[in-house]
Design brief:
The complex is a heterodimer.
Chain A (H helix, E strand, L loop, with lengths): L5 H25 L1 E7 L6 H20 L8 E7 L4 H13 L5 E4 L3 H14 L2 E4 L16 E3 L4 H14 L5 E5 L4 H17 L4 E6 L9 H10 L3 E4 L4 H10 L4 H4 L1 E4 L6 H6 L9 E3 L10 H14 L6 H19 L5 H8 L3 E2 L10 E4 L4 E3 L2 E8 L8 E9 L8 H12 L1
Parallel strand pairs in A: 1-2, 1-3, 3-4, 4-5, 6-7, 6-8, 8-9, 9-10
Antiparallel strand pairs in A: 10-14, 11-12, 12-13, 14-15
Helix pairs in contact in A: 2-12, 3-4, 5-6, 12-13
Chain B lengths: L1 H28 L6 H19 L3 H22 L10 H24 L15 E4 L2 E4 H23 L1 H11 L1 H6 L4 H23 L9 H16 L4 H21 L6 H13 L13
Antiparallel strand pairs in B: 1-2
The chains are: A alpha/beta, B mainly alpha.
């Protein structure tokens, strides 16, 4: 038996490894890698898990058609834990170790504000798919950030139009969770409505803590104030709990219930197969049954087939995010040159499931905020999306251009911060 | 005004059911069970499973949910907590162990029932409210209040009037002495744990039709209960009742007059109690002194 000198073996092994590594590197260069972060635990877990499925649907569709410029899309997912410090670590690891081409995701605006700093520092484009704080596109704007879902200003602006038309709504009461999102969503709306109407009046406000389990004392206090309309800026389970607890007090017979940013999310309609009152005025960033376009129907159908349930609105945001990236790469002809990508992406138009016929969402160069229509509806009986027995209907649609802050406002807001 | 009082009373009773279990475990077993809120959560999910999925009817479902929760609690005591009694630095182990159970229970719940919001309907007869002029008493709230009072009464009977209660008080006063006098301490402790977590489960099951059933809901409850227990005096059963009544009503009336400051009230009460009576309103540790 021939004896190989020891170092030969080592040499052989090293050679084999080198071959493997270089093959792997070549493969990696061909793929477009997206590092995604979504909360998969805790209260926002549903949004995260739906976002993952939405993104996967987009990836499968694109890859089935041969990818982008011949390159496949690959998405790495991680739990953001809805925690800014933790997500920053994940984002940095994505960039340094996984060599991702794009960052995508996050549901919490606090996480978004943290990750956008990593994106700016490393010049890696960050596509925001569901967090809504206006700050990301105004005061905290940086060129490598893009948002493909509406922000709170847009839904508040649409809501102000809607409320302006309701001449009988004069006395307002607001209740919402006591943190940035709850307050900002209300303040934008109230500021805009007061510009349109001089005869509206705020008769009371209450700010329970986020995830407050018991609203009974608030409900009785609201009834005592006798408003015409109750604005709420709750999201998710807080809306469900509030409605359940307000039902025996017949609150919904005595005033209008208005939740224009997150109230119309499917998870709420689904959580109350019995007892959800008719005529609640709600909206969300995506509706299952509006617009009635082929693209939207297909998306909802595919999601149902893949997961066995209907999507909450976050899913469509993530779906849009992947398509936005793919289209950017296709037009720029590269996934590696961030500045070239930014130049293309900030002027991009992209047709999404939430676009009605005759409208295509587009990116605005000044703030990298996608411009989209917003539809506000009211609950009506509809059993097409079980287990929900009520869906939104009687939609009023607000034009995209009317509900975005003007470019002058953006410039002014940024200047105010710099001072 | 009266409507506000009833609303506050409902909150009080839900809090009391959770807090009484927390304080009972501390008083008798000298364990601060951080995971107690998770048993509230389990109770809510068991109720969902039994009432909405299996369909055995609302009241049997709630009762059975409480029993199942108690069984889960007893299992936790029997297989886990029991191993750390009397170890050096026991408190550290307790915190680690009970806190980890929050995470474990949350994740198990998520694996079984998913992350979407579950819902239970109230039985139809309890859907509405009784109205007398301006007065407004939701029927379901009346049931919750009645249950809370019944439990308080039942616990009073159990602790003050039964042999078992005497054993409890003995263990609470001095575990070793009680043991050497022939009280079966381990069995009693498991039973107390089961009973206390069943109360938490009952609270969760009763809350399921009016609150959010979602992973993580236990954490919000445990904080409120801790405030109640601190105000009432750690380990004092009646302290929990009085603490819950104070917190429920102070919050209710605070909201009526100053809704912007809603979050402040319960903490303000706690801070005042801690400054002027750090041991809690009811003196001395121990059950029902």
């Amino acid at each position: 038996m021939t004896k190989f000198p020891r170092y030969w073996k080592g040499l052989l092994a090293a050679g084999a490894m080198l071959a493997l590594v270089s093959a792997d590197a070549a493969w990696a260069a061909e793929k477009i890698v997206i590092g995604a972060m979504y909360p998969m635990t805790g209260r926002a877990g549903r949004y995260g898990i739906d976002s993952v499925s939405g993104a996967e649907i987009a990836m499968e569709e694109i890859n089935a058609k041969g990818g982008v410029n011949g390159r496949m899309i690959d998405i790495i997912f991680n739990d953001s834990k809805a925690n800014p410090a933790y997500s920053v670590k994940v984002a940095k690891r994505y960039i340094s170790e996984d060599k991702v081409n794009f960052l995508m995701g996050v549901v919490s605006s606090a996480v978004g504000l943290a990750v956008t700093e990593v994106s700016k520092e490393n010049k890696v484009i960050f596509v925001g798919t569901d967090h809504a704080s206006t700050a990301l596109t105004t005061e905290k704007f940086q060129p490598y950030y893009f948002r493909v879902s509406n922000n709170t200003y847009q839904s508040a602006a649409a809501a102000a139009f809607y409320a302006n038309d309701k001449k009988e709504w004069k006395k307002y009461y607001v209740i919402g969770p006591d943190y940035e999102y709850g307050h900002r969503t209300w303040e934008d709306f109230w500021m805009l409505l007061q510009k349109k109407r001089k005869d509206v009046q705020l008769v009371g406000q209450a700010w329970p803590k986020l995830f407050e389990p018991d609203y009974t004392p608030y409900i009785t206090a609201i009834l005592k104030a006798k408003p015409d309309v109750l604005v709420t800026t709750f999201w998710g389970g807080d809306t469900v709990a509030f409605i359940k607890q307000a039902l025996p007090y017949k609150l919904f017979d005595k005033m209008k219930f208005y939740n224009y940013d997150g109230g119309g999310n499917y998870e709420l309609l689904e959580a109350m197969p019995t007892g959800l009152p008719k005529g609640l005025i709600l909206s969300a960033r995506h509706h299952l049954n509006w617009p009635n376009t082929k693209l939207n129907q297909e998306f909802v159908k595919k999601f149902k087939a893949k997961t066995g349930r209907f999507p909450s609105y976050a899913a469509e945001g993530a779906y849009a995010g992947v398509y936005f990236i793919a289209e950017g790469v296709r037009q720029a002809g590269t996934a590696e040159d961030p500045d070239k990508l930014v130049a293309v992406m900030e002027k991009m138009k992209i047709k999404l499931p939430e676009d009605p016929d005759g409208f295509t969402s587009y990116m605005r160069p000044i703030d990298h905020q996608i411009v989209q229509v917003q539809a506000i509806g009211e609950t009506v009986p509809n059993k097409s999306y079980p287990p929900a027995t009520m869906m939104l209907g009687n939609f009023k649609v607000y034009k995209a251009e009317d509900i975005i802050p003007s470019e002058a406002d953006i410039v002014a807001a940024r200047k105010a911060v710099k001072k | 005004m009266f409507t506000q009082l009833i609303g506050g009373l409902t909150s009080s009773m839900t809090l009391f059911l959770v807090a009484s279990g927390l304080t009972l475990i501390f008083g008798v077993g000298n364990v601060f069970n951080f995971a107690h809120g998770s048993f509230y959560l389990l109770g809510a999910y068991f109720a969902y499973q039994l009432v909405s999925v299996t369909g055995i009817g609302f009241f049997p479902g709630v009762l059975l949910a409480a029993l199942c929760t108690g069984a889960a609690g007893a299992v936790m005591e029997l297989f886990f907590l029991r191993r750390i009694y009397g170890r050096g630095g026991e408190e550290g182990f307790q915190i680690l162990l009970t806190y980890s159970f929050i995470l474990i229970i949350d994740d198990v719940v998520k694996m079984i029932w998913g992350t979407d919001y579950k819902s239970i309907s109230r039985p139809e007869i309890l859907d509405g409210a009784w109205t007398i002029g301006d007065l407004f008493v939701p029927r379901y709230d009346a049931v919750v209040i009645a249950t809370g009072l019944l439990v308080a009464l039942g616990m009073w009977g159990l602790i003050r009037r039964s042999r078992f209660g005497r054993n409890l008080r003995a263990i609470s006063a001095n575990r070793e002495m009680a043991s050497s006098l022939g009280v079966n301490v381990p069995v009693t402790l498991s039973f107390v744990f089961g009973l206390a977590t069943a109360l938490g489960g009952l609270s969760g099951a009763l809350s399921a039709p009016v609150r959010t059933v979602t992973p993580g809901a236990g954490v919000e409850v445990i904080i409120g209960s801790m405030i109640v227990v601190v105000i009432g005096g750690l380990g004092n059963f009646w302290g929990a009742l009085v603490g819950a009544l104070i917190i429920g009503e102070v919050t209710a009336f605070g909201i009526l007059f100053l809704p912007q400051w809603a979050i402040l009230f319960s903490y303000a009460v706690m801070a005042l109690v801690l400054v002027f009576r750090p041991q809690g309103l009811f003196m001395k540790q121990g059950v029902a002194k």
